[in-house]
Amino acid sequence: ASGLTAVKECLNEKGLVNVVAFEQMSYLNGLWHYVEYAQHFDLRRRIRFSTNVVEVKELHDEQKRWSVRFHPIRPATADASANITHTPEIQEEIFDYVMMCSDHHWKPRYPSFPGMDTSDPKANTGEKQHLHFYRQTDAFRDKTVVVVVFGNSAVELSLI
Predict the structure, then answer these.
(1) Average pLDDT, stretch 141-155?
(2) Which class for 6: exposed (0-12), middle (13-18), buried (19 or more C-beta within 10 A)?
(3) Alpha carbon 149 to chain centroid, angstroms
(4) Fewest beta carbons less than 10 Å away: which of 18, 32, 106, 119?
């Protein structure tokens, strides 16, 4: 979410037209209304999906530019967050500005409760779903739902 806002604001600034965002996932991730936000402001074309940044380094040259080293990644399974296989070709590009908008919630984590096997989320009885994998409301319609672990995405989900 913060990366999308940063890209849009950079594009709004006079002279900042060559804006690039690197995203590890193969799709837009995070709060759902930002997917529509990205479409509305045509931000997707600025995003390099399935890309892992491995180094950001100040060059200390006269222009005070930055080197960004990265490589494409491909999911090892259908669930890109579960296991990532890195491809070996490291690339480098030089930028005038760098904005760090990393999200520390990109890999789902499950809370630990007595009797719950956190090593295998499918091992427990009862219906549950991590918010990371939530896409549609149909499965939860007319049901009583509890949202555990309070965060921005959980708040947004509870409003649906």
Answers:
(1) 63
(2) middle
(3) 19
(4) 119
